[in-house]
Amino acid sequence: MTWNKLTYTGWGRARVASGLVARPERLSTLIRDLTETRAPAFGMRRSYGDVALNDEGRAYDMTRLDRVIAFDPATGIVEVEAGMPIGDLGRAFANKGWIPPVMPGTGFATVGGCIANDVHGKNHHVMGSFGQHVTAITLIQGAKTRKITPKSAPDLWQATVGGLGQTGVIARAKIQLMPCKGDMMVLTERRIDGLDAFLVAFDESRTDYTVGWIDATATGARLGRGILEEGEITSGINKSRDAAKSVPFNAPSWALSAPVVRVFNELYFRRVPAKGRTSVKPITDPFFPLDAIHNWNRLYGKRGFHQFQCVVPMDQVEVLRAMLTRIGTSGLASPLAVLKKMGAGRGGYMSFPMEGYTLAVDFPNRDGAEELISELTDMAHDAGGRIYFAKDSVASAAQIAGMYPDQDTWAKAVTKADPDRAFETDLVRRLGLRDGTGAA
Amino acid sequence: MQQSWIILGATSSMARAMARRLAKEGATLFLCGRDMDDLAATAADCLARGAVCAEALPFDARDTDTFAPIIERATTEEGVINCAVFVGSMPEQDAIDADPTLIAGVVTDSHTGPATFLHMLAPHIEERGQGTVVGVGSVAGDRGRSGNYVYGSAKAGFATYLSGLRNRLTRAGGHVVTVKPGFVDTAMTWGIEGMFLVASPDAVAGDILTAVAKKKNVIYTPFFWRYIMLIIRHIPEFIFKKMSI
User: Fold this and answer.
1) Nearest Cβ partner for B35 among A5, A26, A93
2) Which of A90-99, A156-165, B54-63, B75-84 is the least confident region?
3) What molecular functions are annotated in GO for this chain (chain A) (predicted)?
4) Any alpha helices (H) in A6-72, and if so which ranges?
5) CA-closest candidate to residue B137, choices B58, B84, B93, B196
């Protein structure tokens, strides 16, 4: 049967959708079904909120279309089906001397999702966003299938990269891989005592891969303390294939309660010796630290969790400090909090990145979490920053007005590509993204 | 020694998963089926994942003319020639009830077509003194049920054929693995109600390759289907005929 009645969620599991889902196994089936029924597509549903959900509507599950279609060893250009997980792509070519130039925090994210959310990685300050390395996209818009490049259809291209799937279903893509010496990484970790020290460390860092883990429970003089991770790819091929562990069931609500998180974070901070340490690890460890534990989202219990991620301009350090203070005193912070300095690279009208500091924090879906995230969203807005749609499930249309300066241009291009809003998803509806800002 | 695998019905998700695993082991793959575009994609994917060679070849269980070219191509390879059969078709029982002439096609796709192919391949396995045949049947072949007994009977016939082929090839150094999957998460079962304990195609492919390595004769996958079917096979007919399962 083509359509299966399913109830599904994003990675955060705090937002739920039900509706009919098709899961084509061949391109010809996808084209046939989309000709008849236009609906949005999702991949591994690793975005946190409702950006890939279509409650009471239909959707396409792309995970069975996960193959390499062509690879040119001379140029490093690879064509893949959109449902291929980015980590698979990394593993398939590392021993041939090529890796994806941009990889997000989970290797389970699909290539289609990486394009639609124009994801960034720990090397954003060097390599920019994922979409900047995509050279062609096969876009199915219904009966019409188009192969577009940045040159052949510049407006549609910029509306598609980071465009949340609103211009059609991304079926295949060509990606320019990056030459690499091997798939091992030299990783240096050191403790950082506070926010100011972190910002100095980011400025001084010269490595390709740089990211900071923050103890979001720390307050006062220790506010913003954490661990700076700096990595460089090195030669050598990883042969080990450690079996992944899995979280078998939903954890009880106290598992990530405030005192547990405080103790965990203290231990995590002290795990790295005071003088720092350097090690050589398979590339997947620092790239995808949490992928080693399948279903780790169950640690947050059955109510799920939210992630807040924003970026604020470089000169808005005080806002960052205010955010961390607010989070630290909320008692809602979880062990997962990340700070990173971003470059300016972005691939499309609605791409998240901007030059500045990006902060990402997980919050269990408990009382007060949505209010806190809403407050943080306003702070980001007032600072001239923006929030990341791949993570959001809380914001309102009014709160994000003006965050994305190209929103009206995008909305116009999307209306042209999909006039009857067949590809709308829950987040796009909730934030009224396709209505534009009303500024024009 | 170089391992070559002929995979019949290579567009199915179980076959794809098995091809991918074989590719990682550096096998030579002949991916056979009808949708050549799709087979070409799987071939490219297998090459990227480590296959020494991966080619898409046309195969139609209902057209015996497509058989010989595959065998000719595969036997140009040195080393061990193996074959895995994933073909079969399962129209809705209602459709068959409305048009009983559909039965011939089901039997050809699921039994006589692949049996004819394997009969053409068998002398080559005997000649080389090694090689494994994997035949994918179904738990539906273990007992006839009103819901899908045409498909079930074709798979039962194929299982009996495989049993005989095993008897024949064992004497020459070859081997035959009969695989009986329970419910697998494929396009065939997508959206069908009443599915339970559904296995992923990759898990089934893993079970198959373990069975090949250990020279198992008949496997159920996932393994617990052996016990489910043990019970179902032992229900006395005078009770079974009144049941609806």
Assistant:
1) A26
2) A90-99
3) FAD binding; oxidoreductase activity, acting on the CH-OH group of donors, oxygen as acceptor
4) 27-36
5) B84
User: Which residues from chain A sit within 8 angstroms of residue B86, using beta carbons?
Assistant: none
Distance from CA of B196 to the nearest CA of A (A): 15
Using H for helix, E for strand and C for coil, what is the string for chain B? CCEEEEEECCCCHHHHHHHHHHHHCCCEEEEEECCHHHHHHHHHHHHHCCCCEEEEEECCCCCHHHHHHHHHHHCCCCCEEEEEECCCCCCCHHHHHHCCCHHHHHHHHHHHHHHHHHHHHHHHHHHHCCCEEEEECCHHHCCCCCCCHHHHHHHHHHHHHHHHHHHHHHCCCCEEEEEEECCECCCCCCCCCCCCCCECHHHHHHHHHHHHHCCCCEEEECCCHHHHHHHHHHCCHHHHCCCCC
Nearest CA-CA distance, residue A92 and chain B, Å: 6
pLDDT exceeds 80 at position A143:
yes
Q: How far apart are CA A214 and CA A199, in angstroms?
A: 12
Taking CA–CA distances from B91, the nearest residue in chain A reads A1
On whether the CB atoms of residues A322 and A379 are closer than 8 A, the answer is: yes
Q: What is the mean pLDDT of chain B?
A: 95
Closest approach of chain B CAs to the CA of A335, in angstroms? 32
Nearest to B35 among A5, A28, A78 (CB): A28
pTM, whole model, 2 decimals? Answer: 0.94
State the Cα–Cα distance between residues B17 and B241, nearest whole angstrom: 37
Task: Please report residues of B whose CB lies closer than 8 A to that of A93.
Answer: 48
pLDDT over threshold 50, residue A440: no
Output the CA–CA distances (angstroms, integers) from residue A216 to A169, A325, B39, in the order listed.
38, 9, 50
Binary contact (A70, B190; C-beta < 8 A): no
What is residue A439's predicted lDDT score, i.e. its pLDDT? 58
Is residue A243 pLDDT above 70, yes or no? Answer: no
ipTM for the complex?
0.90
* B118: Cα within 13 Å, side-chain hemisphere: 34
Q: Residue B126: which pLDDT band, with cuts at 50, 70 and 90? A: very high
Determine, for residues B37 and A27 on separate chains, whether the beta-carbon distance falls below 8 Å. Answer: yes
8 Å CB contact of A64 and B13 = yes
Q: Do A68 and B13 touch (CB under 8 A)?
A: no
Chain A residues closer than 8 Å to B11 by CB: 25-26
Q: Are A386 and A403 in contact (CB under 8 A)?
A: yes
Count helices and strands in chain A by DSSP H and E runs? 13, 21
- Tell the residue number behind the tokens 């179902």, with chain if given: B232
Nearest CA in chain B to A24: B187
Contact yes or no for B6/B121 (Cβ under 8 A): yes
Domains defined along chain A, listed by start: 184-238+245-398 (3.40.462.10)
The label of the residue with tokens 């590509």 reads A417
CB A74 within 8 A of CB A39: no
Exposure string (b/e) for A147-178, b if CB count within 10 Å is 16 or more? ebebeebeebbbbbbbbbbbbbbbbbbbbebb
d(CA A114, CA B5): 35
CA A166/CA A407 separation, integer angstroms: 13
Of the candidates A225, A247, A180, A232, which has an alpha carbon nearest to the alpha carbon of residue A11?
Answer: A247
Neighbours of A219 (CB within 10 A): 14
Q: CA end-to-end span of chain B, whole Å?
A: 46
Q: Check residue B235 and give its pLDDT.
A: 92
- The total of other beta-carbon atoms located within 10 Å of residue B76's CB is 7
